[in-house]
Amino acid sequence: MSTDPPLPETRFARAGDVSIAYQTMTQKAGTASLDLIVVPGMVSHVEFFHELPNYTRFLRRLSAFARVVTFDKRGQGLSDRVPGVPSLETRADDLDAVMSAIRSERAALLGFSEGASLSALYSATHPQRVSHLVLYGGFARFSNNSDFSLMFSPEALRTSAKYWGKGPSVKLFAPSLADDPDLKQMWAKGERLCVSPGAYRTMIDTNIEIDVRAILPQIRVPTLVMHRATDLAVPVANGRFLAGAIPGAKYIEYPAGDHMPFTGTDFEPLCGDIEEFITGLRAPPVADIERVLATVLFTDIVGSTQQLARMGDRAWRQLLDEHDRSAHRLIEQHRGRFVKNTGDGLLATFDGPARAIRCAQDLRSATTSLGIAIRAGLHTGEIELRGDDVGGVAVHVASRVLGTAGPDEVVVSRVLPDLVAGAGLSFAPRGPHKLKGLDGAWELFTVL
Fold this sequence. Notes:
CATH class of the largest domain: Alpha Beta
Shape: elongated
Number of helices: 14
Number of domains: 2
CATH topology of the largest domain: Rossmann fold
Helix content: 25-40%
Structural class: alpha/beta
C-alpha cells in the first residue's frame, strides 16, 4: 500500500464573477514558510494533470520547501468557461484572485510556457507581491512577426489547432511520451478536458498577439530563466532572449528534455535549481525509487472504439465499470497489485509469474462472459516503484508484448515459460519479434 499523501483538494477562488480552480500542496500542514505559485501554460487541468506521469511527483518535490499552488486560468480546466479569450491583464487578475484566496501577500512565481509571459507581466506590475520569478520554457512573443523570428509563424500555429483533441500536440510538448500508445490516448483525453477545439482555436488567434518584450526591462524582482535545449514547442533561443532582456536574470540551460517540466529527463536538477534560487539552499535528492522483481500484466479491450459507437456512452460506461470490478476482484484473488487503468485496459503487477498468467486467463474468461474480448501481454523483470505507479524497462517490454497479441490471446515473453516450468501451464511459440523501441529480437509465446 502506498504511503503517499492524498491528492490535494480542488478549491475555487473568485475573480469578479468568475470561479478559478486551484489546489495547494505542502509536505506537512503549516510547515511551509513561503508560497510558490505555478502559473500554467496555454492549457491546464488541476485534477487531470495528476494522471500524467511524474506530474504529482514534480509538485511534491517542490512542496518540500514551499506551499505549492496550481490553478486553471479562466476558460480552461475546472475554472469557469467564459466567452472569448481573456487578455494577459485579465489572466493576471486570476492569479491575483488565487493569491487572495490562499491569503498570500507575497509569493514566488514559477511560470512555464505561456505562463512565463503572464508571470513576467505580473512581476513587473506587482513587484511588491512577487519575491522571486522563475521562468521555464518561456517566450517573450507567442508568434513570429516582422521583427521577431524565434517562435513559429501565425499560420503554422493556426494549422496545429486543427488537430486539437486528437493528441498530436504530445509530440511537441512531451515527445518522451509520444511512443507509448496508452499515454498518447491519455494525452488526447487531456486536450479535450482542458479546452474545446473551438476555444483552442480562438485562444491561438488571441495569443498570437502576446508580446511582453517591452516590459521585460522593467522587471526588478530576482529572476531565474530555465530552458531545455531540446524543447520542441518553444525553441531554446526564446529562453536566451528572456534572460538577456531581464536585468540581472540568471540563466540555466539544460542539454535535454521536454517542454513540459515534469516529463522527459529527470526533473530533479531543475527542482534543485529552483529551490536553491528561491531559498539559498539545495536539499539532497531523495531516493524515492525502489526496485523489485515482478511480473507485469497489461490488458486491453479489443475493438473498444467500435463497441462504444455501437452501444453508446452510457451503456459502454456501465460495461467498463463491470469490467473494472471483475478485474480488481481477480487481481486481488491472485495476489496481484492493480496499478492503474490504461485507456480501456489495465496495468497490474504480481510477485509470481504463474499467478499473473492465471489471472490473465481468468480475466479473459470474465470479459468473454460480458460480451467483450481482451488481449493480454506479460513480462517478468525488474520494475521501479514510484509511489502508486511503476516504471522501468520491464513495464515497457510488457506493453510492447501486449501490442503483438490478438483478440483473446495471452502473450508472454521468453522468460515466463522458463519461470513457471512444472506449474501446469502450456505455451505455443510465436517466434522472434521486434518490439518497438527495444533492441534485438524477442522470443514470444502464446498461453494455451
